[in-house]
Each structure stands twice: as C-alpha cells, then as structure tokens.
Design brief:
Layout lengths: L2 H11 L8 E2 H8 L4 H11 L8 E2 L10 H11 L3 E3 L1 H7 L4 E3 L1 H4 L5 H22 L2 H4 L2
Parallel strand pairs: 1-2
Antiparallel strand pairs: 3-4
Length: 138
Amino acid sequence: MRMEYVEAVLDVVALIPAGAAVAYGDVAELLGSGGARQVGSVMSHHGSAVPWWRVLKASGDAPPGHEREALALYLLEGTPLLGSYAEYLRTGEGRWRVDLMAARWAPSDGEFDLIDAVAERLERTLRKLSAPDDEMTV
C-alpha cells in the first residue's frame, strides 16, 4: 500500500471528533479513493497514532481484539452504544456495538475543506506516480 494513501487515511481519521464514529467505507468515500478493506488495512497496520476506535465496521462492531479498550474510550467520549455493554464490562459476556446511525460523523464545512485538501493532495500524488516518465519531465 502506498504511504501517500496511508497518510491521507490517517489525516482524515485524525479529524473525527470525540463521541463520533465512521465506518471504514466512509473514510474511503470521503477521500474518493480506495475502499473499506484498504482503509481497514491502513488502520490495522498504521492507526495507533490516531483515534482508531472511531473507525469501525459498518455494523458498528469495535475493531477485533480491541473491544474492551475501545468500549472504555466510547464510554469516556459519550459515543452512542447499543446492546449490553454494561454486562460486557462486568463479565466479559454480552454483545454491544456503536450506534453508528447516531454516532456517524457529519463533518462541518471547515472539516470538509480539510478533507477536500487531503483528497486533492492524494489525487495529485497518485496522478504523478502513475504518469508515464515522459510526462513527468515536462
């Protein structure tokens, strides 16, 4: 995976505010590049420096293997949840998930401007990288 794409995904994820969440596919859509699997791969390999818990499967399930840590962060941030998370905290049993319908991030105009700048930078970089050598010497 190109580092330019990794950086663009991480730049977008860093903008997601506390208490909000998005699906992997939402990040790809905001960037206008890649898909849910590519974003998931970026997050699993490079996402530890950004609020990784705010990017989820479309089902609202927390990143696998990080459920307990993510749940503590969701509760701290006031992220809307569904299911028996209190039972999960007490016993490790019970199913819960983020209420993605209620928690889905709706970027402000200013945030959209930042996202657009990231997406345009990614597009320019990818276009340069895919251009034939003779076009790059102009």
